[in-house]
C-alpha cells in the first residue's frame, strides 16, 4: 500500500507543471500540496507568499522547531528532446519517468508521506518552497521571515541524490560588468583603447587571483566566463545599448558575465568587483557599471555534527556539487547541522528524466527513521 501511495504522489506531482515561464509557475502544485496536508495531516499549514502570487507551503506540529525538512517544488523547463510527454509520467521497469522525477518531485512525495505519518516526531517543520531552479525567491523569503523566529537543531533537505549525504557546497557569485575603453581607427591601434582586449587582460588576472581561494575540503574556487560581447557604443534603443560590429573600429565597450563558485566564505561579490575596478584602472580602461545577481557563500557541516545513528550512509565529496540553497539556512540559523539526501540521480535536468521507485521507498524509510518515532 505504501508503494502505491508513493507512486501515486510522485506521478501526481509530476503531472502538475511547476516550471517557471510567462504562463506557468508553482502555484497549482502548491495548492495541491497545501490541500493534501490540510486534508490528511494534523499539522498547522500555511501559505507564505513571496511575490507575484507565488508561495511556499509551511507545515509544523509545534511553534518550537527541532527539525526542519525542506524541498523545492519547482522544476526546470522541459527541453524539446523528451521522447515522451514530460508531464504524463510513465511507470516501467521499476522507474517513474517524467519532468522533475529525480529533481525533486519524488522527494516532495516523501515529504508529504512523512508529514501525514501519525508517528511524526514533535517539533518538526516542513518547508515546500518555490524558485530553487531560478533565483531562490522561495528560500530567500523563508529566511527573511523566519530568521530569529525559529532555531532548528538540524536541517534535512531531500534535494539530494543516490541516497548519499551531501554536507557542504561551494557558494555562488554571479556578476555582470561593463568595461569602457576608447574608440578609434583599427588601422591605428594607438588611437583608441580596445575594451574587449583589455577585458581579457583583466579577466586573466582575476582568474589567477581567484585560484588562490582554495579550501582543503571544498577544493578550488572555480570561474566561468559565461557571456562576453563588445563593440563600438552607438547609443541606446528601448533602454538597450547598441554595439557596432564593424571591423575597422576599435571597440570601446565590453560587457561580460561571470559565474564564480567560491570555496572560501570570505570571498564576496564586492571583493570581485573591487578587484576588477583596480585592474581596469591599471590597464587604462574603466568599469562603468556592474550588477550582482547572486552573492552566496560556501557551506560545510562536519560529518561528526550530523547524527545519523546506525544508518551508515555514504558521504559525497562536498566540493563536487553545485550550489545548494541549504547554505542560506545554514548561514542564517547559526550554522546548524545541515545535510541533503535524496532518491534522485544524474538524470536531473535531462530529457527523459526518471527516478527508481525502490530508491523513493528507501528514502522514505531512511528519513522516517530520522523524523518519526
Ordered list of secondary-structure elements with their pairings:
Layout: H1 2-15, H2 27-40, E1 44-51, E2 54-60, E3 67-72, E4 90-92, E5 95-97, H3 101-115, E6 124-129, H4 137-146, E7 154-157, E8 168-169, E9 172-180, H5 195-210, E10 214-215, E11 219-220, E12 222-237, E13 240-244, E14 253-261, H6 269-283, E15 286-296, E16 299-300, H7 326-332, E17 338-340, E18 354-356, H8 357-371
Parallel strand pairs: 3-6, 3-7, 7-17
Antiparallel strand pairs: 1-2, 2-6, 4-5, 5-18, 8-16, 9-14, 9-15, 10-11, 12-13, 12-14
Helix pairs in contact: 1-3, 3-8, 5-6
Q: Which CATH C-level class of the largest domain is it? A: Alpha Beta
Number of domains: 2
Provide the structure class. Answer: alpha+beta
Task: Say which CATH homologous superfamily of the largest domain is assigned.
Answer: Zn peptidases
Tally of separate helices: 8
Biggest β-sheet strands, sense, barrel: 6 strands, mixed
